[in-house]
Design brief:
- By secondary structure, the protein is of the alpha+beta class.
- It has 3 domains: 99 residues, no CATH class; 116 residues, Ubiquitin-like (UB roll), CATH 3.10.20; 116 residues, L,D-transpeptidase catalytic domain-like (Beta Barrel).
- The chain is built from 12 helices and 27 strands.
- The strands form 9 sheets. It has a 5-stranded mixed sheet with strand order 21-20-19-27-22, with helices on one face. Strands 23-24-25-26 form a 4-stranded mixed sheet, with helices on one face. Strands 2-1-5 form a 3-stranded mixed sheet, with no helix packed on it.
- Strand 6 and strand 7 form a beta hairpin.
- The radius of gyration is 49 Å and the shape is elongated.
- The relative contact order is 0.07.
Amino acid sequence: MTTLSLKAPIRRSLMLWLTVAAFLGAMALGCFAAARYVYYRDRFYPDTRIEGMEVSLLTAEEAAEKLDKALSSRMITVLGEDGVAARIPCGRFQAGDDNLSAEIAALLLRQHREISYFSGMRGAASQYSLQWMEKGDILPLLQEAIGSYGLRQESSARLVRGDDGWSILPSSLGSFPLTEDCAEELSALLRSGSVLSPGAEPLTAALALQWIEPKVPSDDPLLNRRLEALEKGTSIELWLDFGDGMKVQLSRGRLAKVFAVRDTEAGEELLLSELALRRELEELIEELGADGVPRKLGVLDREEVHESDWDAGFLLDRELLLSQTAEALRAGGGTVVASYDYTSSADRAFGVGDTYIEVSILNQTLWVYQKGQLMLTTPVRTGDIATNKGTRPGLFQVSYKQENAYLSRYNYRVRYWIPFDGHIGIHDADWVEAFGGDIYLTDGSHGCVNVPPEVAGIIFENCEKGSWVLVY
């Protein structure tokens, strides 16, 4: 009896302790569960991904910070037809007001609404996507990113002139990027749900180009017929013989400047411009120094011309050279022999007759004599002494005379032009404010004899080709 009575209290005590232990265990488990619930209430459940990036156990702020860094570094490469057109961070394509933190907080709230705590603890996988721009919003951003990529103006083929003659400058295609198609591809790419997946392939979109054909292609029949006609002109073999072994051929580059082409019903007609030919011959004569040597005088003064150091001279007949060269070009080539006007070495006297033009550099005065009568006295402006462009003293003859001339060397247009020493001549100068005096010492001409506009016509009417011009 005694033994039995002792076992019952022990069992009751043991049961009590077991009950207390169970109660305490349940309390601990409940506290642990409550603590986990509180912990996960502000965090994403395990196995949660946004755009393929793991955000498990992160708060909304932590997830937003992680995603923001990833979106800034994750690039979408826009590939053009000849390389990379642009690289754009994914983050620039977010929709709305770009408040990523608010969007992630909304996703966290959504997860806790849709998935119970116990399901979340069991690791129910959750995949979420961000909000991206629509195609219409992507388009201007894409255009800004690519800038002028793919924008090329079409260029038609055309004839160009060079040192070797005429040639065709090839045409080129124009183009513009098809940004709408690319924006649509970008929109689909962003909505794949795995933009930020680790180890994913690079994000790329293709930017195609729309090509524009040139209006005039390189193989245009009319353009090539014009070239063929011009080639006939530039292939002409024409030689100019200035004597003393000075014989030169007109280059293809010079010939290209004097010929043009005109379209007719019968075909392309080759045209020769005598004005352009004159310009080319003038340049060539100056380059070669083939204009001749005017007769040299010795000591000169106003009263008389002394014969010391007198020397016979010769001058190129430019007008004859021009007409003969033009005739030879129209005939298809050949050799033109330049003609010079030689002064007899036996003519030792002054011998200019009673019709001539006299220019005094010292007195800055010009006199016109016609058959022994003084027709005009006028102040002038001769070449600038300070810049070594002084008018050269000597006895010369008028080469030719021309009204309404364009002096290409100096870019001047004058009413009356009377050249007598190569490119040096007498002409009106309406831009000169004063004539005479000592202006020529520091503000003279380029070498010509400038005369007042109101007297230039009188000088022009009282001289002819070959008239003497005495400068001293």
